[in-house]
Amino acid sequence: MLTRLDIERLEEENLAPYASRSRESKGRVYSEKEHNYRSPFQRDRDRIIHSTAFRRLEYKTQVFVNHEGDYYRTRLTHTIEVAQLSRSISRALRLNEDLSEAIALAHDLGHTPFGHSGEDAMHKLMKKHGGFEHNAQGLRVVDKLEKRYSNFPGLNLTWEVREGIIKHHTDYDWPKIKEFDPSVPPSLEAQVVNAADEIAYNNHDLDDGLTAGLISEEDLKNVGLWNRVYKSTRGKSSSSDKKRRKYETIRRLINTQVTDLIVNTEKRLKKIGLKDINSVREMEKNVVGFSDEMEKDNKRLKRALNQLVYQHYRVVRMANKARRFIEELFKTYIRDPSQLPPSTQKKIKEDDLYRAICDYIAGMTDRFAEQEYKKLFIPHERV
């Protein structure tokens, strides 16, 4: 039998000195008795998986809206992929896998329906009313909006997981919350999730773009990283089996990037000589990262994705349609809040009109937002 105390002992024996230890957690906002058989980070992971917001990720857009096809990634499948990469990287670096997994599973809980176009629309609508940023919304979800416990609001997660949520940083995210000093780097486990997220969405958006026919292998011949890995798959699959060669290339791309990240981060750690978690937070910038060469390759890959996928007319059409959905729903609710369900009308009294409507729409799935739009604007649709 493995108890929480055994887990803490194993962490002390096996983790690197600069890894986060569950025994040293800064704790929760609301005091709780520790679990007999789970560490605090394992408990957080389980709470996130059982949350309503996590289940809704199944019908939230990654790049392609849900009805475009069953093959394409959703926020849920993307989240699972990020969690898997985060665990693998953390294990190799002797970091706390449970903390990385919990942060990874929660990192997209604050997303609106329809991906970044939905977030852009919400940010514009909320500009004069406190703004909208999906990491801050994710923290709001786990701190307040989830209603699952009688003794406290939200999920009452540990400080370390909450920090990982708010300090999740990609090209799209600039979180600023007073409780978590933005000038202080997060844990190495949170930094791993940042890198794993980038690896996942770059390669899987590439995969989905190829599958959707938005781009072809020929379009990518000048993208160095893709071209090198693609050429190395020659002879592994028959020339007529393009699908298998694509899968092989994507798999090798992910492996190449993950390996570079692990090797380069390990070199940095040895060079810096971090003593403990406190020395991580004293650094001026993140420690987990790619080599300079891979960083350049990734930037070229992202530029290609932006030009070939994100600016493709079909994706632009989906994005603009999504913005209209969000904007029209929001403006309609503002004009007449009586159209909102009773639970949201109650929140208007607790927060304010704009924030309550923002929370309501941000929590929608793509499917629910589309249904709500039809109910409000299509005359013969049942309400």
Task: Outline the fold blueprint.
Blueprint: H1 4-14, H2 40-49, H3 52-56, H4 75-92, H5 97-106, H6 115-125, H7 134-145, H8 159-166, H9 188-211, H10 224-232, H11 242-272, H12 277-281, H13 292-310, H14 313-335, H15 342-350, H16 353-362, H17 366-377
Helix pairs in contact: 2-5, 4-5, 4-9, 5-8, 5-9, 6-14, 8-9, 9-11, 9-13, 10-11, 14-16, 14-17, 15-16
Walk me through this protein's architecture.
The chain has 383 residues and is mostly helical. The protein has 17 helices and no strands. The mean pLDDT is 91. The termini are far apart. The longest helix has 31 residues, at 242-272. Helix 2 packs parallel to helix 5. The protein has two domains: 4-28 and 37-316, Hypothetical protein af1432; 317-377, no CATH class. It is globular.
Question: Which descriptors apply to this entry?
Answer:
Hypothetical protein af1432; mainly alpha; 383 residues
Briefly characterize the structure.
This protein has helices spanning 4-14, 40-49, 52-56, 75-92, 97-106, 115-125, 134-145, 159-166, 188-211, 224-232, 242-272, 277-281, 292-310, 313-335, 342-350, 353-362, 366-377. It is an all-alpha fold and 383 residues long.
CATH C-level label of the largest domain: Mainly Alpha
Number of strands: 0
Low-confidence stretches: none
Helical residue percent band:
55-70%
CA-CA gap between termini: 54 Å
Order of helices and strands: HHHHHHHHHHHHHHHHH
Can you count the helices?
Answer: 17
Which architecture of the largest domain per CATH? Orthogonal Bundle
Rg (CA only): 22 Å
Structural class: mainly alpha
Characterize the largest beta sheet: strand count, sense, and whether it forms a barrel.
Answer: none
Write the CATH fold name of the largest domain: Hypothetical protein af1432
CATH homologous superfamily of the largest domain, by name? Answer: Hypothetical protein af1432
- Count of domains: 2
